[in-house]
Amino acid sequence: MMNLRNIHFIPLITRRNQIHKCSICRLNSTETTLQQIDVKRIRNFSIVAHVDHGKSTLADRLLELTGVIKPGNENAQVLDQLQAKRERGITVKAVTASLNYTYNNEPYLLNLIDTPGHVDFSNEVVRSVTACQGVILLVDANEGVQAQTVAVHSLAKRNNLVIIPTLNKVDLPRADPAKVKAQLKSVFHIEPDTVLKVSAKKGWGVKELLEAIITRIPPPNIQSNDYFRAHIIDTWHDKYRGVLCLAYIHSGTLKLGQPVKWKSDMKQHTVKFLALLRPNEENITEAVAGQVVMVGLGPKGGGSVGDSLLSPEATNCKDTASVPAVRHMVYAGIFPADQSQHTQLSDSIKKLALNDSAVSVSVDSSPALGQGWRVGFLGLLHLDVFTQRLLQEYKAEAILTAPSVPYKVKIKGAKVIKHYKTDEVIVTNPLQLPDVNNIVEYYEPFVIGTIITPVEYLGAVNTLCIDRRGSPLPSSAVDEQMTMLQYILPLSEVVMDFHDTLKSITSGFASFDYQDYGFHASPLVRMDILLNGVLVDELTSIVHTSRLEYNARKLTARLKEMIPRQMVQVAIQAVVGGKVFARETLKAYRKDVTAKLYGGDVTRRKKLLKQQADGKKKMRSVANIKIPRNTFIDVLKR
């Protein structure tokens, strides 16, 4: 008979109903180590780089080296768990993993945050570095310094983070580490002997990089004896546990069952879930200052990115982290394909917006499309990924209208005009534009664009920027083959197809990044579309005077193709301030009223044609041009 005294029952650690893949013995030893870990042996760091420089591959090697996953192709892109990430091959969401590593016979806890590289997801990087003391600045040894490399280096400097410059893909035949080191020296003043060389694909140099993280990056500066204080860097929704938060602890300790409160509303809650992400959840009972942990307060616990979680005893609490407000670059209308799906789409957008704090959602309505939402994004790729995740993760189909950028207008006599309390108004939807007679001046958003291009394409790049109404800033040489240009560009000219055109004219060698430059006065006008003299509000747009005639002709020609023929002739006009800038005529259906005549006097034929013409004229004066909903969808969507 089996002796039950020799059997040890060990509970399994699960993450969202999935069994943890790590060995049970290693989990138990890890929990013991965590409770004994010294704050001086905690390292919080991010991997930052230009898109496609190998961040996710390097993260995989770090996970393998610390024993989280086993080597193999089946474990590629472990941190890119979203389907949209894997399909596009880019990181769109910052992901955290807490790693254990022993160095000089001492255990260390390394909190890794893998960040996106595309400019449309820069908000993820900004939030991630608030929980870090250092970054790995990853640069492709083949491509060299790119536009986003400049942006993330500047972000790390502003946050006083330790930078570990690292060259990746040194195993490729075209790699030129000496050249890229010279670029880092020229652009960032980084000494070549401080630059590490790795091959994330083959694992070369990754162990040395891991040790450099321990030796170069300092431990978190915390106050362990103070009240508990943490700030939220990410949130997501769980079907059974409600809102889960990723928190960086600034001071004190956090225990399971401990009462806490939100700084925003001061409501008190109880910690019901506490775990480390490895990247799968590993339940713990206590967390100390300096750690990045997952916290859950139950289905009604709430939580939002940027908020602070405090101990109930904390009264005068200073801000835990300074994260700049998100500046949305593109706005688009999202409407359900059928109004019966409005409730489902509303819930899906709320849950997805909780996980993507860079979007703004406001209620919108359209006479043609019904009830919907006006959503702000950081760029067109951000918009595409958001709608793709809506469909893949929540099975919610949506109609997306043409994206537009926000404008600012200055109003005269704002206090006496209804609904306006200030003299400057941000307009995200052309339908909300005040009356033209009350507008003193229009302001257009501009950005500072940074372009790094080979010298042989300088002429084509300069021509493109000038055609897009750009103003040049001083340029600088990266090395003998590459030049960094800067232009002040209108946002409306950048967000649509600027990046694709730039890649096309430079054979894919140029890189582009931009940052906000604020609103500036610009000659803008409101362009209306009239059908037989009747204003169609849905087709109103704001255009620059230099693009007015081109946009007017393009839109009227498209409407002529899209609008179905009517029983009466339809005049499609693009009008600005009562002046017609473009017109197209949609011919009416015509019945041959003389077909029944087989002879006789010509006056009979003329009489029938006159009766038909009079009838058409009367119909035009009273007819209501009906545009099917599908036509609006085809015209408005991208």
Automatic annotation (TrEMBL):
Subcellular location: Mitochondrion inner membrane
Keywords: GTP-binding, Hydrolase, Membrane, Mitochondrion, Mitochondrion inner membrane, Nucleotide-binding, Protein biosynthesis
Catalytic reactions of this protein: GTP + H2O = GDP + phosphate + H(+)
A Gene Ontology biological process term: positive regulation of translation
InterPro entries (alphabetical): EF-4, EF-G-like_DII, EFG_III/V, EFG_V-like, LepA_C_sf, LepA_CTD, LepA_IV, P-loop_NTPase
PROSITE patterns the UniProt entry points to: G_TR_2 (PS51722)
Binding site for GTP: 49-56, 114-118, 168-171
GO cellular component, one term: mitochondrial inner membrane
GO molecular function: GTP binding; GTPase activity; mitochondrial ribosome binding
Cited HAMAP family: LepA
Family note: Belongs to the TRAFAC class translation factor GTPase superfamily. Classic translation factor GTPase family. LepA subfamily. Belongs to the GTP-binding elongation factor family. LepA subfamily.
Name of protein: Translation factor GUF1 homolog, mitochondrial
Source organism per UniProt: Leptosia nina
Lineage: Eukaryota, Metazoa, Ecdysozoa, Arthropoda, Hexapoda
